[in-house]
What we know:
- Helices cover 80% and strands 0% of the residues.
- It contains six helices and no strands.
Amino acid sequence: MIRIAAIEECERRISPGACRMRIARSIGSVAFFLMVVPLLLGLAFGVPPAEVFTLIASTFLLQAAAAVVGLSLGQHPAVVLVFLTSVAVAVMIGILEVCDLFAERSRLIQRLLRKVDAKTGQIDGAPPSSA
Length: 131
């Protein structure tokens, strides 16, 4: 089995079980917002599952233009917005969890996160944190 250096570092810093739980939590939250929430919303709004999966796939492939696909399927604009937001939340959670996992190991990710922290501190007017 191929081991990723960041996962090995995670297992070394905290217990292997806690590291696996952290990875499972990340995968579960992404899957929840990516698949479960849109399917439940589809049931609530009467959208067939095939259209839900079409909206999810078009969001990955077309990003902002995916709204056109949803509208062309005859869905209400608010419903399309909710579906696209759910997929966007899943992607954001996935990115943040991967950054969090690799930030402990990768100097490149650490530098990138420090730059982002400094920029957001300048925008908010708050001093950047020294974490």
